[in-house]
Amino acid sequence: MKPSLVGLLSSLIIVSVSLVMPIYAQQLETKTIKAEPMVKKISRTGKLTFKRTLSLSFKSSGYLEKLSVDEGESFTKGQLLAQIDSEELTAEKNASYARLLQAKREIRRIKTLISKKLSSQQALDDAKTLVETTRASHKIAEYNLSKSQLIAPFDGVVLTRFSELGELQSPNQHVLKIAAIENNLVVRVALTAAELNLVKLQQKIDLNLAKFGVVTGSVSKVPAIADEQSHLFTIEILLDNLNVNQVAVGQLVYVLTDVVTDTLAYRLPLEALNSVDRQGRALIMVLDADSAEAESYSQQAFSIKQLSNEYIYLSAQPSPLPLTIVTRGWQHLALENKQLDETQ
User: Are residues 217 and 295 in the same domain?
Assistant: First the structure.
């Protein structure tokens, strides 16, 4: 009877130990992390617009006689867009040409008189000067007449119409505002100084555009100074694979892209974070080098480089070694280490 009782007690002790010990082992989960370049996210809202626009105006005064395009309409390079009444300009060109012919005849007349010793070399020089000045006046008149028409310098679209037929146009008074339709669409996005350091010219950026989904553009402009009011830096992302007719210029565009940096860091899941010490460092349960025993786990402090909803990025030294961290069950290890420290 006594031997059987002892055996029963021994069995109970073994069972109880076996029930307690595996709980610790089963709750302990580890993961080996390698240092990798940090990935920073840029999440901003920008606006789709034209990179360049052009305002057209006439060089000379005149009444608007012809306007062949309206707002929102497309045109082709070389197309006549607008024209003012050119009657006065044509008359001036013809008059200047007549004065030029008269000046040339005057030279021939004076040469004839000089041959008869009835005129002087001074008169001839004055006549030649008159020819040059009237020729210059004629060229100006021809140029002014050519500028009585607005010819499309490229394939484009009319953004704004400022005048109506019959209105008197003055020099430098805008008639039309136009934009090219090829390689002229950009997304302007305002970034902080920290975000600006993540981008460079010709860098590829992903954007979410309505009706298109995710499209890729390239950074075409990085400003040197910030806006005086917002203190933000507005970059431009060129969308060279889109046509104006395919999108709504002025619409909002969502910029959500990952930028790989040169900084190495350990990317850990948030559940591996034990706590944060007074210096703001992350405390992580790490396996000591060259050991797989539970007793060789220790809590180590790392500088926090970045924190997201899913991950925490910890600083890594140059040529860093992989880390084996505890993602589950580190509470038991921390408690055990504390108890060991207290007994010592």
Answer: no
Kindly state whether residues 171 and 59 are assigned to the same domain: yes
pLDDT tens for residues 247-305?
A: 889 999 999 888 888 889 999 999 999 999 999 999 999 988 665 554 588 889 999 99
Reported residue count of the chain is 344
Question: In sequence order, which residues have a C-beta less than 8 Å from that of residue 63 and are 6 or more positions away?
Answer: 84, 85, 166, 167, 168, 169
**Helices vs. strands in the chain: H and E counts, helices first:** 5, 21
Contact 151, 82 (CB under 8 A): no
The set of residues, in sequence order, having a beta carbon less than 8 Å from that of 173 and lying 6+ positions away, is 57, 58, 162, 163
Residue 205 belongs to domain spanning: 42-52+186-262
Specify the residue for token string 């990952």: 258
Q: Give the helix/strand (H/E) hosting 305.
A: strand 304-307
Q: Are residues 228 and 125 in the same domain?
A: no
**pLDDT digits over 36-63, tens only?**
998 888 899 999 999 999 999 999 999 9
- Which DSSP string corresponds to 134-202? HHHHHHHHHHHHHTTEEE-SSSEEEEEE---TTPEE-TT-EEEEEEESSS-EEEEEEE-HHHHTT--TT
pLDDT of 151 above 90? yes
- For residue 98, what are its two tokens? 């007549």
How many other C-beta atoms can be found within 10 angstroms of the C-beta atom of residue 107? 16
CA distance 139 to 146: 11
Sign of the dihedral through C-alpha 187, 192, 195, 200: positive
The Cα 145–Cα 91 span in angstroms is 10
- The verdict on 269 and 337 lying in the same domain is yes
- DSSP symbol at 149: E
The two structure tokens encoding residue 52: 């360049």
pLDDT at 329 over 90: no
Cβ contacts of residue 242 below 8 Å, gap of 6+? 185, 212, 215
